[in-house]
Amino acid sequence: MHFLIGLGLEEMNDNMIEYFYEYLDDEIVEQEMSKIIPILRHHFIKICEKHENKKTVEIESNIEFEGNELKGICEYLVRTKGQNVGNDDNLKLSGGGSINSYYPLTNLIKYDSNNINNYYYNYNGSDARSESEGWIEFDFCKRKVNLSSYTIRSNCCSACTWYHPKSWRIVGSNDGENWDVIDHRTNNSDLNGAHKQHRFECSNNSSNYYRYIRYIQEDICCNDSCKYNIYLTCIEFFGSISTAKET
């Protein structure tokens, strides 16, 4: 016991701390008061810090695919949080290139029959010339998501020259700078046509949760010079939502 007191709490493991409190008695306190007080003070601070770190708790909602390819995480947020989702602190959409205000990013998360054919494109006035312009970002703000699959729906044009995506990446990040690849498709023909819709299983599905999800376009089915031009009607995600709340 005297040996443990001489170590100090920062040098003790959990078993030593348990032993310290189990065998601490009046005689030892009287003999080692000057050494015991700093240990108790240090332990009390550690308990307080641990309590502070537990002020947030993760509440998860599982929104997996159940038959409707456009009823996932974004649809859930719009349905439960209101029509401003996409431009508020529940979900913010942004993208590269030149955006036309008449065809906003929020068209991508309007899945009802009246709006499903409304589209978004990123080449208003000039083509997107590099991958740095060919992306769409979903910022889930106070939430994080773990993706298992996602749906993409092509634009309204039947001509293959109208920018149907062929190669792309889905990536995730928590700082907006370092990105992990969640899924990568190359030379894919599932979206080559008007209003083609397909749900893709994430190839690198893991337990990681991300605040930011990006669709990054690498190529289109025709017209290689415009391969970063994005022209889509819908994107939807499936998986789990993790929300931090105050206890």
Explain what the structure shows:
The protein is of the alpha+beta class and 247 residues long. It has four helices and eleven strands. Strands 2-3-5-10-7-8 form a six-stranded antiparallel β-sheet, with no helix packed on it. Strands 1, 4, 6, 9 and 11 form a five-stranded antiparallel β-sheet that branches. Strand 2 and strand 3 form a beta hairpin. The radius of gyration is 26 Å and the shape is elongated. The mean pLDDT is 87.
Q: Largest sheet, order of strands side by side?
A: 2-3-5-10-7-8
Our count of helices gives: 4
Structural class: alpha+beta
Coarse shape: elongated
The portion of residues assigned to helices is 10-25%
- Terminal Cα span: 38 Å
Which H/E pattern describes the elements?
Answer: HHHEHEEEEEEEEEE
Q: Determine the strand fraction and express it as a percent band.
A: 25-35%
What kind of sheet is the major sheet? 6 strands, antiparallel
Stretches with pLDDT under 50, minimum 5 residues: none
